[in-house]
Amino acid sequence: MGLKSLVSELRLYGIKDEKVLRAMSKIDRKWFVLDRYKDVAYGDYALPLMKGQTISQPFTVAFMLEKLELKKGDSVLEIGTGSGYNACLIAEIVKPGKVYTTEIIKELIEFSKKNIKKSKLKNIEVIEKDGSKGLKRKFDKIVFTAGSEEVPKNLFKDLKKNGILLVPVGKGIQKMMKFKKNKKIEEEDLGDFVFVPVKH
User: Fold this and answer.
1) pLDDT, mean of each 10-residue run, the chain (200 residues)
2) What number of CA atoms fall less than 13 Å from residue 172's CA on the CB side?
3) Buried b (16+ CB within 10 A) or exposed e, 138-166
4) Cα pseudo-dihedral 59, 176, 188, 80, rounded to 10
5) What's CA 42's distance to the chain center, in Å?
6) Are β-strands 47-48 and 54-55 bridged in parallel, bridged antiparallel, or unpaired?
7) Helix, strand or coil for residue 28?
8) How far is CA 23 from CA 54, 78, 88, 128, in A?
9) DSSP of 133-166
10) Does residue 2 sit in helix, strand or coil?
11) Contact in structure between 5 and 30 (CB atoms under 8 Å)
């Protein structure tokens, strides 16, 4: 299976946002997997990275990007850079907006920076920090690429008006929760997923 087939498969699975599908056609997942998994880079499943981390299943990635309602010019905080794949997809969609992506595993910071260079995108900043504590600035969108045991309510203050926070919450099987900041915080349960836990 090639990249084109993977994107066609995601469309069949119900991904409708053309911005997401275009980004996934342009940002090659093969750039972000370990060498030993290059031949299965286009399969719709998660693959191992170093230090017990994974690159998420493409459908899960696309589903989350769609639910983030990304727009050109958005400022986005990603908690958990991992391979850098998700950050590049977001950056491709929101440019000239910016992605601030945080990671605390040194090996993944080096790996992701090397991978991000292949995308030639200049609107991504990789920050060595626990992003779940916030970055003392406001964002249009905040997304966790790893599971959080509790709803990170401390980050609601870092959302701009109409901002969205997307986070898998719970232990084991997590609930994908979407929070939208209007006059009050609106929440939506998007179903069950399994993610590795956030490292603090």
Assistant:
1) 93 96 98 97 95 93 98 98 98 99 96 98 97 94 92 95 96 92 94 76
2) 0
3) ebbbbbbbbbbeebbeebeebbeeebbbb
4) -90
5) 17
6) antiparallel
7) coil
8) 20, 17, 9, 25
9) G--SS-EEEEEESSBBSS--GGGGGGEEEEEEEE
10) coil
11) no
Look up residue 76 and give its two tokens: 């986005």
pLDDT score of 200: 55
Q: What does the pLDDT look like over 12-69, one tens digit per residue?
A: 999 999 999 999 999 999 999 999 999 999 999 999 999 889 999 999 999 999 999 9
Q: Report helix angle 18-26 to 85-94, nearest 10.
A: 120
Cα separation, 124 vs 61, whole angstroms: 18
* Residues contacting 172, CB < 8 A, separation 6+: 194
Burial tier of 123 (Cβ tally within 10 Å: 0-12, 13-18, 19+): middle
Q: How many residues does the chain have?
A: 200
Please answer whether residues 112 and 124 qualify as being in contact, where contact means their C-beta atoms are separated by less than 8 angstroms: no
Q: CA 172 to CA 109: how far, in whole Å?
A: 25
Fold entry, domain 3-193: Rossmann fold (3.40.50)
How far is it between the farthest Cα atoms of the chain? 49
pTM of the model: 0.95
**What amino acid positions are annotated as catalytic residues?**
56
